[in-house]
């Protein structure tokens, strides 16, 4: 299974202006640094809660279908929340793609993880290509930047401030500078857990 970002988010959940106001920065000298910290903080938060924040398109590549279950084969989506399943493509032995009809599968986007049920008899049991024979393109995220829950945006804001103020990962002769515990508290309700 391979996961590839196709279209990154159009905007960050925290704007540069908001971050600079929080940092009380009144000059433009460090705008590039602030932008980098915002992107890094978003990626850190996404990894911590196992969710993507602003809408982005991904491609999930599989070698073959998962084993059958009652009613069909279920493909679990590795990211959440999933907004839509855009295409399911199967490649034959000559690498010729065949996009499956929407009727060939049912997308359960409300579950975690989101799932696609491939209906029996509508999709080949195995792709013709020996590897990377199936591609699922999907859109994940909460929506626009303004749709990201406020506690998650606050966690990004605090992380940007932390990294801006403490630029060394460790203090020589002292303890490491860990991420503040406040972040864990803000992100706890959104953390995707596996049972």
UniProtKB/TrEMBL annotation:
Superkingdom of the source species: Bacteria
InterPro entries cross-referenced by the UniProt entry: Phage_CHP, Phage_HK97_gp6-like
Transmembrane segments: none
Name listed for the protein in its UniProt record: Head-tail connector protein
Lineage: Bacteria, Pseudomonadati, Pseudomonadota, Alphaproteobacteria, Hyphomicrobiales
Origin species: Microbaculum marinum
Coiled coil (UniProt feature): none
């Amino acid at each position: 299974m391979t996961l590839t970002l196709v279209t990154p988010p159009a905007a960050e959940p925290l704007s540069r202006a908001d971050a600079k106001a929080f940092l009380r920065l009144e000059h433009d000298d460090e705008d590039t640094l602030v932008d980098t910290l915002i992107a890094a903080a978003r990626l850190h938060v996404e990894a911590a809660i196992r969710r993507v924040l602003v809408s982005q398109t991904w491609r999930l590549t599989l070698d073959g279908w998962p084993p059958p279950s009652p009613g069909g084969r279920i493909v679990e989506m590795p990211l959440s929340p999933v907004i839509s399943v855009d295409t399911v493509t199967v490649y034959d032995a000559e690498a010729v793609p065949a996009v499956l009809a929407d009727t060939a599968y049912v997308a359960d986007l409300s579950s975690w993880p989101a799932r696609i049920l491939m209906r029996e008899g509508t999709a080949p049991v195995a792709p013709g290509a020996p590897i990377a024979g199936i591609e699922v393109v999907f859109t994940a995220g909460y929506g626009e930047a303004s749709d990201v829950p406020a506690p998650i945006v606050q966690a990004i804001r605090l992380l940007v401030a932390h990294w801006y103020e403490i630029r060394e990962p460790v203090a020589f002769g002292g303890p490491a500078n860990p991420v503040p515990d406040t972040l864990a508290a803000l992100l706890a309700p959104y953390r995707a857990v596996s049972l």
